[in-house]
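Methods — Computational structure assignment.
A single polypeptide chain was analysed. Its primary sequence is given first, followed by the predicted tertiary structure written as structure tokens.
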Amino acid sequence: MSNAWATQTEEQTLEKMAAAHQHDEPVPAAAAAGPAVEGVLTQTVVYGHEGARELKGFIAWPDEAEKAPPAVLLIHEYWGLNDNIREMARKFAAEGYVALAVDLYDGQVADTPEKAEALVKQTVEDDEAFKSNLRQGYQFLKDSAQAPRIGSVGWCFGGGMSLQAALLLPGELDAAVLYYGFLVQDRDRLATLDTPLLGLYGGKDSSIPTADVERFEQMLRAMKKPIEMKIYPGAEHAFANPSGTHYNPEATADAWKRTLAFLEKNLEKES
């Protein structure tokens, strides 16, 4: 893997993440949809290019916004841009945000843990490509959606990418939420970080040990970086994915409330 992306610790994290998803089936679940989302418009959109290839994502926005609302860049989990992530985009739009779910897998969606693992490895091996993808997603929200402030939210693999977005866009990205994403433990790589972070982790996560989460938080606090962290003692990896085997509705509900409060504060959303 590229040295710019994966230290040995991060490679091990990817292996443990694969093990954590071994028996999962990434199917849309009733718990993901919840009540019907009204007042939200959606479409598939081209948000950038990689050479001649179009980067296509899923965008949702509130139908009756009087002016351009703040935006969130959504980064899919292990499985890719599937129906669960599209539903999350609708949920954010219902809360008053423009939500763009980017696609780091070039239109591919995994239906088995083995395929997901292969797609993750393929993606992180080309760090310039995924960095360009994230930058273009951000720029689309800034230019085409005219978002006054922009945050990122990612789950699992996408949680790690949400941190990468913050490192890529210092002085630009206004907030980043990490749902059980892998962490950077290198002080030099974190030195330029100035984006407020919210980390949401499971205390029983076999792929990202609580000790690593606590060390990350302590390091950032010592460096005077803006960080909020919540560890749910009884929750495992992917606790917020209702189609997975580790879904924890109580932790998910609390994490959603924290996410909305954090974004409202840092994206200066009008209540």
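Note: The first strand starts at residue 40 and ends at 50.
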